[in-house]
Design a protein that fits this description.
The complex is a heterodimer of chains A (about 850) and B (about 230). Chain A is an alpha+beta fold and about 850 residues long. Chain A has 4 domains: about 150 residues, no CATH class; about 170 residues, no CATH class; about 270 residues, no CATH class; about 150 residues, no CATH class. Helix content of chain A is about 60%, strand content about 15%. Chain A is built from 28 helices and 21 strands. Chain B is α/β, with parallel strands linked by helices. Chain B has one domain: P-loop containing nucleotide triphosphate hydrolases (Rossmann fold), CATH 3.40.50.300. Chain B contains 7 helices and 10 strands. Chain B is globular.
């Protein structure tokens, strides 16, 4: 039978190269979508994990400062804790290279005489130089190669408005130990790092090595008693999990979108397997009558599908890798802008990933072929040899399937009624039910729509009407297209609504004329401060009337890290500073806090509740006066009055300032003047308009990958239209021959097939648009709220949706041209009894 | 084209097919006959004698390897595929042994199909009259697949006659029917052709049915014999 399988396969491939190619395309793109997203997901945390292992790989516990730093004086106490074999302090600061290409250097200040083991490039380095030479730093050999640096190279860096001169004293090779370690890791003496780039007496982290066999929990409890709320005690695994949790929503949503492509690809496999079954029914019937067992015949079909799946994996895996590579920059930008994590520097694909890819491809192809294979299983020899009437059976079942589809829709409503946006998986359950509902609703709706269509001529309308009579094939293409369209409509509406919401939010909340911060602010957070002298100079500019100051650091509430900002809100403004979701306050109150929506949703906080923040001397409680809309980051944020922050958390310098100008001043001109005046100071200045543009740029960058994913599934679905019509042209040869015998011209048959393509396109758009509205509602009102904590106001981008629909319709028409040509070439002599 | 011109003329027509083995299969060889308007011509012959090939050539579905097939004086072999298609659409009706009704269309839609193909809006009334004539008006809105064999062939005859063809070609029109239905269908076919004054060329195995024709020819291994 195996010999027969390969003989038959050769014949099949010869007879249906295009069908095979289209099916292969569907599976490959589906696999590529999933694989590329999984590679990105896998590597999104790679740099973080790699850098953490490179620095703290040998540690059993990591003590992280919550304020955000720890007093150095705690170090001897940690070291003296029973069960601690060794401990070493770390001072971490992300500095910006003052260069034409201003990259971020992740500087780690270490005590070279403790247990930390730096992997040096080449010979071991005499670390005494690290202590003796001012600004001595070891950079990775990879970065040195990339930038053309060698030992002795002088580097000018900035942290906030402070600048420092560093000297490359040695080259390290962290990638040797941990391949995913960031090439931007730089190591220097901790005392030098504190004095040049940060504050003396403070450390960010203390790594701890435990005595062998000691009870870890007991040591953690002892440390916890000593450190109180000042530090968070984590194992390296927990530290990694923390970062993974942060990215979980982002990664899950990308995975879900990529799976839709695979799902749509499965429809193509369904169509082609269905076609193979129809085409080979006599062959299978003959084999059965010659004594082949049911399992053997079933095996032939499964063999075909397995081969298709494997070919799809072989093509899809490299495509997926290329897709991931092409999107590194976009995802890296999102990781660093939204999650403040390390960028992806390189892609690593572990061997087990190939097994995952193969499983995804085979499962996708297998699921697509499942229904036709089961159909084959139900047939006896006699019925295999007799003519098929599959469309008639589909027609009979269509109302029942429709009813099942309606039940799915009701279930979506039910899940919302019960779980709302409180249960995280609810959105995915609803999306899954929606995707199941579409193919179930399609056959009966297609039947209903086409049965009402009046036909008075033999052309487009006749072709469209025929769709309702070929229910074994056309609803599959319509459903696949409808799913892809629903994804496009849903995601487009969500992204567009989000963009409009963000635009309005920015308009409402960005009120100052100029915003000043430092290039290192985003990554270095509390370290990146603006010197008081710089603020004084800014104030002295003749156009500046008021200055708002903002101090910001990462704090913890209930173990959750969030951005806590203190604002000097004494400047009178025309409108309320915060767009509030809950509460009614015009200005920032003195003794209470305003909490951003993502943090409020994740912690279940409301106006009247208290926000409990870990303070330097224990938990500090603030009554919540309002919940404001916050789209700045998924991490969550809260605002205090600057004076309150100083009172409760101690003094500190500001991270950014907002300048208000005299009414007749031009913000862009003032920015230009300030840039000249502060040429030597590392400042980042944006006018109100410039900041808005930058925010929108970041937004567009963040959603660029979703655009790619939705168009991939659409591409697969359009191929499905072509595949279906080719299958129809082949299956309905006798019908076409009859038309030709009755005098139909080639052009007329061409038009009929064009009509079918247009009909599938229009039906897919109609169904997909309705489902897309539901998809958009799920994304906006459930998924975004539950996962990201963002309230998005619904805005329908009608113009864009109409334009996209026109493109889909055009694509469907183009996809039907080749099948229409095949159909129009059918000679009247092809009229055979068994096909009609 | 003169009024005396026969509707269909085969002049020394041959149709050869190349065999995969390298040989040549002579499906028809030196076949000549003609049929005038209002006349009926029956062709008999065993399976494989070339009857279907002859009908394909007569309908312009295929062209001869040698000789000429003329339809009302026009050499079908000299015409383009499109021109032959238009002749088939406007002037030739086809009735098949296996009816070839489209199961997804209603009875009336099957009859109306040639009118749709020709974008001819005048046929609707005629289609209804023809259905009435064959006694199937009551089934007009039913799917064709629900009819019996005899009823299906009556619908197929209506479809063939819808556009008043000059030539009706019937390929064993009763070959798939029982005796009672065969008689009904054949009588109906003859009557309708008489009424329409078209020419009828039909292939049959039945001596009795062949006897109903004005002229009768017999095919043996691609060669024609007058009976």
């Amino acid at each position: 039978m195996i010999r027969y399988f390969f003989r038959a396969l050769r014949a099949q491939l010869r007879g249906g190269v295009l069908l095979f190619a289209l099916s292969l395309f569907g599976v490959s793109i589906g696999v590529a979508s999933v694989v590329s997203i999984q590679i990105i997901n896998l590597n999104a945390l790679g740099a973080f994990r790699g850098s953490m292992l490179a620095v703290s790989g040998s540690a059993d516990l990591i003590l992280l400062g919550k304020m955000p730093t720890l007093p150095e004086t705690l170090y001897p106490e940690v070291l003296a804790t029973p069960g601690v074999a060794a401990a070493w302090p770390l001072y971490r600061v992300d500095v910006t290279l003052r260069d034409a290409d201003p990259i971020v250097l992740e500087v780690i200040g270490v005590d070279f005489f403790t247990a930390i083991d730096v992997p040096w490039e080449g010979e071991a380095v005499d670390v005494s130089a690290a202590l003796g030479q001012s600004g001595w730093v070891a950079v990775t050999a990879t970065l040195a190669r990339e930038r053309g640096w060698s030992v002795g190279e002088r580097l000018s860096v900035s942290i906030g408005t402070r600048t420092a001169e560093l000297v490359v004293g040695a080259l390290s090779d962290f990638e040797k130990a941990t391949p995913l370690a960031s090439p931007r890791l730089a190591v220097m003496d901790i005392a030098q790092a504190q004095s040049l780039l940060g504050s003396r007496g403070q450390v960010d982290q203390i790594d701890v090595k435990l005595v062998d066999g000691v009870d870890e929990a007991a040591v953690v409890a002892a440390l916890d008693r000593k450190l109180g709320t000042k530090a968070m005690i984590l194992t390296p695994e927990q530290r990694e999990e923390q970062a993974a949790d942060l990215l979980s929503a982002f990664r899950l949503n990308l995975t879900a979108l990529s799976l839709i492509s695979l799902f749509v690809g499965g429809f193509l496999v369904f169509s082609s397997t269905q076609a193979a079954l129809v085409r080979r029914r006599t062959e299978f019937g003959l084999l059965r009558s010659l004594g082949a067992t049911h399992r053997q015949v079933f095996g032939l079909l499964v063999g075909d599908v397995a081969l298709l799946g494997l070919a799809g994996v072989a093509v899809g895996m490299p495509l997926g890798y290329l897709g991931a590579r092409a999107n590194i920059d976009r995802v890296s930008a999102t990781l660093s802008n939204l999650y403040l994590l390390e960028e992806i520097h390189q892609l690593v694909v572990p061997p087990w990933f190939f097994v995952l890819g193969a499983a995804v491809g085979l499962a996708g192809a297998g699921l697509g072929a499942l229904a036709p294979a089961l159909e084959l299983g139900r047939k006896d020899t006699r019925s295999l040899l007799a003519a098929f009437s599959l469309h008639a059976r589909v027609g009979e079942k269509a109302p029942r399937w429709f009813a099942a589809g309606v039940l799915c829709v009701l279930a979506i409503v039910g899940v919302y009624a019960v779980a709302g946006d409180r249960w995280r998986p609810a959105g995915f359950v609803q999306a899954f039910l929606l995707i199941c509902a579409i193919p179930l609703l399609t056959p009966w709706l297609v039947q209903l729509a086409t049965s009402r269509l009046p036909v008075r001529s033999f052309g487009l309308a006749y072709g469209v009407k025929g769709l309702g009579r070929q229910l074994q094939t056309t609803p599959v293409a319509v459903a696949a297209l409808a799913i892809a369209v629903s994804m496009v409509v849903g995601v487009t509406t969500m992204v567009s609504s989000f963009r409009d919401t963000l635009d309005i939010w920015i308009e409402r909340t960005i009120q100052a004329d100029i915003y000043v911060s430092t290039p290192s602010r985003r990554r270095a957070a509390s370290h990146a401060t603006i010197g008081a002298d710089v603020i004084e100079r800014l104030k002295r500019h003749p156009a500046v009337t008021h200055v708002d100051r903002l101090r910001q650091f990462f704090a913890y509430t209930n173990g959750r890290r969030f951005s806590l900002a203190g604002v000097d809100a004494s400047v009178p403004v025309d409108r309320a500073r915060f767009a509030l979701l809950e509460g009614e306050v015009e200005e920032l109150p003195r003794d209470s806090v305003l909490v951003g929506e993502p943090l409020a949703r994740k912690e279940g906080l409301h106006v009247g509740d208290d926000l409990v923040v870990d303070g330097p001397d224990g938990p500090v409680s603030f009554p919540i006066a309002g919940i404001y809309y916050d789209y700045s980051s998924e991490l969550g944020s809260a605002f205090l009055h600057l004076d309150t922050m100083t009172e409760r958390f101690g003094g500190g310098t500001v991270a950014s300032v907002a300048l208000y100008l005299a009414p007749d001043s031009d913000a862009d001109d003032v920015v230009d003047e300030l840039r000249v005046a502060f040429q030597a100071t590392p400042l980042s200045m944006r006018s109100n308009r410039g900041l808005r543009e930058r925010a929108m740029q970041v937004f567009d960058q963040t959603f660029a990958i979703t655009r790619l994913l939705r168009y991939m599934s659409l591409l697969i679905a359009v191929c499905g239209v072509a595949l279906t019509l080719i299958v129809l042209a082949r299956e309905r040869t006798s019908e076409l021959a009859l038309y030709r015998a009755l005098g139909a011209s080639r052009l007329q048959i061409f038009r009929i097939y064009l009509g079918k393509g247009l009909g599938i396109g229009a039906a897919g758009i109609a169904l997909g648009s309705v489902a897309g509205v539901a998809f958009a509602l799920i994304l906006i009102y459930v998924v975004n709220r539950a996962f990201f904590g963002w309230t998005i106001a619904m805005h329908w981008p009608l113009g864009l949706l109409v334009w996209q629909s026109a493109i889909v319709l055009l694509a469907s028409s183009v996809a039907s041209v080749y099948p229409a040509i095949i159909a129009s070439r059918t000679p009247a002599t092809e009229l055979r009894r068994e096909d009609l | 084209m003169s009024l005396d011109e026969p509707v269909l003329r085969f002049h020394s027509v041959a149709k050869h097919y190349s065999q995969p083995s390298g040989g040549v299969l002579k499906a028809l060889d030196d076949v000549s006959f003609e049929i005038a308007a209002g006349k009926k011509l029956a062709i008999t012959g065993r399976s494989g004698s070339g009857k279907s090939t002859l009908l394909h050539l007569a309908a312009g579905i295929d062209i001869p390897s040698a000789g000429a097939v003329s339809f009302v004086g026009r050499d079908l072999g000299a015409l383009t595929d499109r021109q032959r298609t238009l002749i088939r659409r406007d002037d030739i009706g086809l009735v098949f042994q296996f009816f070839y009704l489209l199961p997804h269309l209603t009875v009336w839609e099957n009859v109306a199909l040639p009118g749709w193909i020709a974008s001819d809006r005048t046929f609707e009334e005629r289609g209804r009259k023809l259905l009435d004539r064959v006694g199937l008006s009551a089934f007009a809105t039913q799917p064709a697949s629900t009819l019996s064999g005899g009823e299906m062939q009556r619908v197929a005859i209506c479809r063939a006659l819808l556009r008043k063809p000059r030539l009706l070609l019937a390929d064993e029109p009763t070959g798939n029917l029982d005796d009672d239905n065969s008689e009904v269908v054949m009588d109906l076919l003859m009557q309708l052709v008489d009424d329409e004054q078209g020419a009828l060329l039909y292939v049959t195995h039945s001596e009795e049915q062949a006897a109903q024709a004005d002229e009768r020819l017999s095919l043996h291994s691609g060669r024609l014999e007058r009976t």
